[in-house]
Design brief:
single chain; about 350 residues; mainly alpha; about 70% helix; about 0% strand
């Protein structure tokens, strides 16, 4: 499942890549924004597995929140700082024609981003590092999860199911772009996936599992179904993507089929380990790339285009490779050290 998270991160980057490549207009890539919902479902599944039985007191909940924020906040702040530095370059060196510190790059939005509340319907658009809206929505899920586990430890999954249904209904009926929502109904969208993941974790042992060739066939069917759904889903039907990913997580959580063994390859597991850093750094790199491309007249319309699609493909692949290299440095120099430090700070003291 961790390897699948790496694959999903790649597909989100491909969705954002502003290059006129062969694959840019494929329906599957155009709808790859839906893969962020896999993150929400998997997060709920993993968090429930790790913490549902460990949050007994307010101190436990506080330690949980510090540990979860310690996983995401340092890299988030690093990239926010990078975007602020770019904005200062706009202000003092006029690196492009955009006005500095305006609209989605306003000074007040810096503070909501630092607090990770920017996607709690406080702004009418995405701000600063756009993909960080998912972190803001996840933090809301962590807070709700901790409160539910403390208040109703044996029933929190079923209360969470109610929240998931309410969240899905609100996205379906109120969000203008349905599951392509970000800054407005982000928390409701995340609740939908997160608490369905929690419920799945709680009932997983009660669901019969297939073995051998049957498990392999089920894994192949699950992947094909997910790809077909994402390739063609538009409008209201996209809200059902959380159910697709719940099924996918259930199928691969057993690790009984040939695809699971393939996804257990060390290279893919490592990609999954880098996935958060890839997700967090890619928008900054693409933003700088577009500034440079416009100065070099590589953008005849809205995408980078060298006049031949094959050259565009090579450029897109090279840019993705560069994103991964930067992400590896960010993972090793910021993400991992911060996690180790937070783990040391929050380690329960033994008598």
């Amino acid at each position: 499942m961790d390897s699948l998270r790496g694959v999903c991160a790649i597909l989100v980057v491909m969705f954002h890549m502003p290059v006129a490549s062969h694959w840019r207009d494929w329906g599957f890539i155009q709808h790859s924004y839906l893969f962020v919902d896999y993150f929400f479902v998997l997060s709920g599944f993993v968090i429930a597995h790790a913490y549902a039985g460990r949050l007994k007191t307010g101190r436990d909940a506080g330690r949980f929140m510090v540990r979860r924020l310690g996983r995401v906040w340092p890299l988030h702040v690093l990239m926010l700082g990078a975007f602020i530095a770019l904005e200062l370059a706009r202000l003092f060196f006029h690196v492009d024609s955009a006005s500095a510190f305006t609209r989605d790059r306003s000074v007040e939005a810096i503070f909501t981003n630092l607090l990770l509340i920017q996607a709690w319907h406080v702004h009418p658009y995405l701000t600063w590092n756009g993909p960080a809206w998912t972190l803001s929505a996840e933090v809301a899920c962590y807070l709700i999860f901790a409160a539910l586990v403390l208040a109703a430890p044996k029933r929190f999954r079923w209360i969470g199911l109610v929240l998931a249904i309410v969240g899905g209904v609100l996205v379906l009926t109120c969000a203008k772009r349905f599951m392509n929502t970000t800054y407005d109904f982000a928390v409701q969208q995340a609740d939908d996936g997160f608490f369905l993941g929690c419920l799945l974790q709680g009932i997983l042992t009660k669901i019969p599992r297939l073995k051998g060739m049957a498990a392999t066939g089920l894994e192949i069917a699950a992947v094909v179904a997910a790809c077909v759904f994402i390739g063609y889903a538009q409008g209201p039907v996209t809200v059902a993507v959380t159910l697709v990913f719940v099924a996918l997580v259930w199928v691969f959580s057993g690790e009984d089929g040939a695809l699971s063994r393939l996804l257990d390859h060390p290279a893919l597991v490592t990609l999954g380990r880098w996935s958060f850093a890839i997700y967090m750094v890619h928008m900054f790199i693409l933003t700088v790339m577009m500034i440079v491309a416009r100065k070099l007249n590589w953008v005849p319309e809205r995408r980078i285009d060298f006049g031949t699609v094959w050259l565009n493909d090579l450029f897109a692949i090279a840019m993705f490779g560069f994103i991964v290299v930067v992400a590896v440095f960010a993972h090793r120099l910021v993400e991992q050290p911060a996690q180790r430090m937070i783990d040391r700070w929050t380690k329960p003291k033994t008598a």
